[in-house]
From TrEMBL, chain A:
Keywords: Membrane, Transmembrane, Transmembrane helix. This is Putative tricarboxylic transport membrane protein. InterPro entries: DUF112_TM (IPR002823). Residues 14-432 form the DUF112 domain. The keyword Transmembrane helix applies. It holds the Pfam family TctA. Coiled coil: none annotated.
Length: 495, 152
């Protein structure tokens, strides 16, 4: 306990907490940046830090950016992040009525409470899941990775084939370099640089930060909006009467959706919004500036931040790109993610729990001055933001291993990322494949060695692995069945 | 147009997978006669699946729910930006960080149509030497140097 307090309550961690949360809210509030780009450009600052302060900075950016998206969603009808898209539905009509400050108050309180509820769920669920996961053998871990990859592919932009293809490319990229078992060189093309494989952070910076900058230049999508100074007003306690149920329900939905791989906060907020609209007696007012709509969207999208960490911390399986980046930050600090993360690095995991709670509390305090500054933040010329993304991308890639050739890798993946984005190929499965690739290979080969090279025995080895493979198959089959049923339904509707 | 670019990309990915598959037989990996565990077995399986899925993506009909992030209107400028960054990346091992990145930032600002002298100069100073000084000297994160043991 005293170790956790020392890890968290020191000047470096608390400074990282304040800085990360503030930066996160600013990044989230600026339309077009978002959590992943924010994390990518903040990564280089963490390389020289200790483990806990570096994770604190990144978690602050993550949680802050999810909340920050609501500021621009409410004030300029342009969600800073996709997670805040549902917030515009009621937030902007309130701002149009001159209640922008109050709408921000509803969003802030709902975000903080949703985030705190998800922290509670994380603290209760992650150790249980982790204890269960320590009994996993190679086959079960392999099945779990297959399930994670198929789930992420299945929900990728509604196109499973493209998602699977990107996941396979990610897995394949993870195999480049020296084979860990035999020491043989694989796809290194005789270059010593590739013998250590592609650096995950250089790839992430390329795919998300640099490709974002290239996309901004390619599409000319860099519009600014103007907004006058707004003061945030918290809603009165009496105004919560009849709305607490929506807060708790939406937080629950956010926790549930966040724990599933590949779904994310945007999905959670729209599901919560739709459910609240159906269930609430004020449902008719939704879409016309009803605060309960803001509560539903914001409580759920912030509840995702804690629960998304459940599979990440308990199983070492990242559910989305954000948690993949957080895991890669752990790798930089010499911590190997996996099913034994919680047992071998309990001090770090416990510190993360405390930090997540503190971030949600700090967010409430930091939000007040940042909302007032929002008008000035929007005045930052977008082309300078783009230039900043490029330079931070180069800095991050150049410092991660101290190898200047990693910048070449980042630029190459940035160009590839732009092409993928313009053609609708999802980037998340590629990164998740790259993160899980080494574990995927290790568990597969170990499982094969233990089963005399018989892959079929993976399905009969134990009930858990069989169930995981079955769920993975269903996750793949569901979109295909849905696509086959769609024309039939359309036919019956036209008849 | 979007469907064509989609197909071209899929076929490009299939070609890449096939080339890597071919390379796996000639470019090392080796054979371990004492074990059934071969270093190139998993990559070949993955490359095979990659090629199959690529063909599947290229052949499938257009779908209304396919989404891309937007339409490229300034491809020439973007290509110039990517080309410039490749040059910066290639020159980093020999010229160090400061010189190529400062030059690159100047080109970048010009490509982003920053023509006002003062904002140009301030942005260049902050994003080039400013961030270099912060990272290299302030945060102690070593950036590539022009000469080993040199100042920049």
């Amino acid at each position: 306990m005293s170790t956790i307090l020392l890890d968290v309550f020191n000047v470096w961690t608390l400074g990282a907490l304040l800085l990360g949360t503030t930066l996160g809210i600013i990044i989230g509030a600026l339309p077009g940046l978002g959590s992943v780009v924010g994390l990518s450009i903040c990564l280089p600052f963490t390389f020289g830090m200790d483990t806990v302060p570096s994770l604190t900075l990144l978690l602050g950016v993550y949680c802050g950016s999810v909340y920050g998206g609501s500021i621009s969603a409410i004030l300029v009808n342009s969600p800073g992040t996709p997670q805040a898209a549902a917030t515009t539905l009621d937030g902007y009509p309130m701002a149009q009525r001159g209640e922008g400050g109050l709408a921000l108050g509803w969003a802030t309180v709902a975000s903080v409470l949703g985030g705190l509820i998800s922290c509670g769920v994380l603290i209760l669920a992650a150790p249980q899941l982790s204890r269960f996961a320590t009994s996993f053998g190679s086959v079960e871990v392999f099945a779990l990775i297959v399930l994670a990859l198929t789930c992420i592919a299945a929900v990728s932009h509604g196109n499973t084939a493209k998602g699977l293809l990107m996941g396979l490319i990610g897995l394949m990229l993870a195999l480049v370099g020296t084979d860990p078992v035999t020491g043989a060189a694989r796809f290194t093309f005789g270059t010593p640089f590739l013998s250590a494989g592609f650096d995950l952070i250089a790839v992430v910076i390329g795919l998300f930060a640099l490709s974002e900058a290239f996309w901004r230049v390619a599409t000319g999508n860099a519009e600014s909006a103007e907004v006058s100074g707004v003061r945030m007003t918290l809603p009165r306690l009496s105004a919560w009467k009849g709305r607490i149920g929506t807060l708790i329900r939406s937080s629950g939905i956010g926790c549930l959706v966040g724990a599933l791989p590949g779904t994310g906060a945007a999905t959670a907020s729209f599901i919560s919004y739709a459910v609240a609209r159906q269930v609430s007696p004020r449902g008719d007012g939704f879409g016309r500036g009803e605060p309960e709509g803001i509560v539903a969207a914001e409580a759920s999208n912030n509840a995702v931040t804690g629960s998304a960490m459940i599979p990440t911390l308990a199983l070492g399986i990242p559910g989305d790109v954000v948690t993949a980046i957080l895991l890669s930050a752990l790798v930089v600090h010499g911590i190997t993610p996996g099913v034994r993360l919680m047992t071998e690095h309990l001090d770090v995991v416990n510190a993360i729990f405390v930090v997540l709670i503190l971030i949600n509390l700090v967010m409430m305090v930091v939000a007040f001055p940042l909302v007032r500054l929002f008008g000035r933040l929007l005045m930052i010329p977008q082309h300078l933001v783009t230039a900043g993304i490029v330079v931070f991308g180069i800095l991050g890639a150049a410092t991660v291993r101290g190898n200047p050739l990693d910048v070449l890798v980042a630029v190459g993946f940035g160009a590839a990322g732009l092409v993928f984005r313009l053609t609708g190929f999802p980037l998340a499965p590629l990164v998740i494949g790259l993160v899980l690739g080494p574990q995927f290979e290790q568990t597969l080969r170990r499982g094969l060695l233990l089963n005399d090279g018989n892959f079929l025995s993976f399905f009969t080895d134990g009930p858990l692995a069989a169930v995981l493979f079955l769920v993975a198959a269903l996750a793949l089959a569901a979109p295909v069945i849905g696509a086959l049923r769609k024309p039939r339904l359309q036919d019956s509707e036209t008849k | 147009m979007a469907q064509n670019s989609d197909r071209i990309l899929c076929l490009g990915l299939v070609t890449l997978a096939m080339a890597a598959f071919g390379w796996s037989f000639i470019g090392g990996g080796g054979i371990n006669a004492a074990s059934t565990d071969q270093p190139m077995r998993l990559p070949r399986i993955l490359l095979g699946l990659w090629a199959l899925l690529g063909v599947g993506c290229a052949l499938r009909p257009a779908r209304s729910d396919d989404t891309s992030d937007g339409r490229a209107q300034h491809l020439g400028r973007t290509t110039a930006l990517i080309g410039m960054l490749f040059l910066v990346a290639v020159s980093l091992p020999t010229l160090g960080y400061l010189v190529p990145v400062t030059g690159g930032v100047a080109v970048l600002l010009w490509l982003l149509e920053e023509r006002r002298p003062l904002p140009f100069a301030v942005s260049l100073a902050v994003l080039g030497p400013g961030l270099w000084a912060l990272f290299h000297h302030g945060l102690g994160l070593r950036l590539p140097l022009m000469m080993s043991g040199g100042v920049f």
